[in-house]
Amino acid sequence: MKLASLKQGRDGRLVVVSKDLAWYADATHIAPTLQAALDAWPETRPQLEKLAEDLDHEAIPRERFHERDADSPLPRAYQWADGSAYVNHVELVRRARGAELPESFWTDPLMYQGGSDGFLAARDPIPLADESWGCDMEAEIVVVTTDVAQGVTPERALDHIALIGLTNDVSLRNLIPAELGKGFGFVQSKPASAMSPVFVTPDELGDAWTGGKLHHALKVDYNGKPFGRAEAGEEMTFDMGVLVAHLAKTRSLGAGTIIGSGTVSNRDPDNSPGRPVADGGKGYSCIAEQRMVETIAHGEPKTEFMKVGDSVRIWMDGDDGKPIFGTIEQDVVPLETSAMGGA
Amino acid sequence: MKLASLKQGRDGRLVVVSKDLAWYADATHIAPTLQAALDAWPETRPQLEKLAEDLDHEAIPRERFHERDADSPLPRAYQWADGSAYVNHVELVRRARGAELPESFWTDPLMYQGGSDGFLAARDPIPLADESWGCDMEAEIVVVTTDVAQGVTPERALDHIALIGLTNDVSLRNLIPAELGKGFGFVQSKPASAMSPVFVTPDELGDAWTGGKLHHALKVDYNGKPFGRAEAGEEMTFDMGVLVAHLAKTRSLGAGTIIGSGTVSNRDPDNSPGRPVADGGKGYSCIAEQRMVETIAHGEPKTEFMKVGDSVRIWMDGDDGKPIFGTIEQDVVPLETSAMGGA
Q1: ipTM of the assembly?
Q2: Chain A residue closest to B114 (CA)?
Q3: Alpha-carbon distance A94 to A85, whole Å?
Q4: Keywords of this protein's UniProt record, alphabetized (chains A, B) (predicted)?
Q5: What is the pLDDT of residues A87-136, one digit of tens each?
Q6: pTM of the prediction?
Q7: Residues of B numbered 263-322 whose beta carbons fall under 8 angstroms of chain A's beta carbons: which are they?
């Protein structure tokens, strides 16, 4: 089943979307919003699944689905916590900062609590007030949980994953070192993330979803050119069950909690940092990694962080070669333009 | 105006509470929940104020208000970010860890993004799965904002403070050093915070609310004895406007964002760390400070962190000597008891 929230008010309007993302059916008679559906998931899930089945059988009234009309599936959420499951990314980014990777990072997940009071829709521009902040994309997998009891095991945590999607976890790289130095996590260096147009239930992914990992390539184009083709199911040190359990060690989690995988990242077969797509490699899911690899090769980074006018596309194709979650497609714009667009 | 949410479902039922906290009137015809009221604050605020006026004039049906029936005013929120405005606290806690205080901490606020998917009600027990985690209270002031545009100034930010209240920001002290070392902030060391039974509008505080500071003593009793009497308006390095502006530097804030002051903390007049209340001082708003002062005096801490059976009370008296926000009153219980109590 695929779910989306059409833009309407602060929380959107819940719809069920066809497998090919061409059609939708209104679902507000079951739950007005996705959060309301998740609040009563044992009751709403079977009703929504029946609706999705009817939609795919063309048995009910349907409307054309346009990804540009979709808000973030949860336009705001009660929790957003982002892990760093691909330790290759962490190692590269730290090397770029000249910092060593502690051995414990291979066994104890990094995770930060992020702002969840407002996500960007998949086609919303990225507002950037100051280019010197070093704006970067981070392409990631996210899961949305039902209620989770404190102390859940990683294995049992997988049963609490209701939905899966993609995010662009926008990061302001040049603000990160100072915030890391304070130890209190990211407040200013992580503005609003963008979410894929649709989130899907695990069964929708078939065999590609196993052991808390999603076995497809996460595709990133930057300014119209292939930039990242990393395999999300490979070199994921911590699966999604481990990340959910990490967050739930000392507290329960409310329904609608969104947990991110961290930037998807692969090494090259020879164990070196991945090569650019243009050089036959799998590329990168953020600019910071490419800059690190450039620094290793040339002594300094060549690729600049995102500036006004740059654009990023993030998506994941299924076995049929079509995007499973729709496409995140964002341009960087000055802050004022964005504010006017949203008024 | 004083607002509360009576326990009902996930988000409570909005009520207006009389100034003396003795009576309430249902406000669900104006907005079903406090979040809904904040989402449309320009429209709902005058209606709620009219209702509060009628309640205080006994002009409408009213019911007895019992603080034990109140949930957190926002039982869950889209954002909770906690500052450290009382740098004396930060300095003491760091000295307790043997860490220096960087000079920048006096000009650049510390702030972490906290979990907001579920707060404890003022009378809910604190569930503690493992006493070795070092459970501590942190008594703080909180403000709730309306929508805030990115880049707001500290002065203008004050106009976006809709409500003021108290919190017990429960902390697991022995999990903090490892999380600080990772730099990603607090995920496991900050379980659910408890909120005061009522939040109030700034005008309700009269002259005690000036310049983004609340000029009353924040009172803390621990196991029935006076523990903290720190003046919340004194030695607050960053006022609430500065904290709101800090969070809004790179992103807008959604209505219902809760921002905390950090642990309220005063030095002694001779500039030494404050003395215990029993010794004529203003005491402490958390156990960690008392342990630090003990370490200075005796070479090691004497007071243990909270264990099952310990209890804490947090409140603030107004000019009339009565609690403004009601009283946070919590016992520490084993995790299982708490889970059963909530079932």
Answers
A1: 0.96
A2: A113
A3: 15
A4: Hydrolase
A5: 988 887 777 667 788 888 899 999 999 999 999 999 999 999 999 999 99
A6: 0.97
A7: none
Rounded distance between C-alpha atoms, residue A228 and residue A303, angstroms: 14
Find the length of chain A.
343
CA distances from A269 to A183, A199, A266, B71, B202 (A): 34, 32, 9, 55, 61
| DSSP E strand boundaries for B169-264 | 171-172, 194-195, 199-200, 209-210, 213-214, 217-222, 225-231, 258-260
pLDDT tops 50 at residue B299 = yes
Place of tokens 């078939």: A206
* Exposure of A228 in the CB half-sphere (CA atoms within 13 A): 32
Whether A41 and chain B come into contact, CB under 8 Å, resolves to no
Amino acid at A58: E
Q: Could you tell me the pLDDT band of residue A340, with boundaries at 50, 70 and 90?
A: very low
H helices present in chain A, as ranges: 34-39, 41-56, 87-96, 154-157, 176-182, 240-247, 287-298, 335-342
| Contact criterion met (CB below 8 Å) for B24 and B15 | yes
Q: Give the Cα separation of B130 and B172 in Å (integer).
A: 10
Residue B261 to residue B239: CA distance in whole angstroms: 8
Token pair 């606020």 is at which residue? B109
Tokens of B54: 């009628």
**A60 touching chain B per CB within 8 A:** no
User: What are the pLDDT digits (tens) for A307-339?
Assistant: 999 999 999 999 999 999 999 999 999 998 655
- The DSSP secondary-structure symbol of A304 reads P
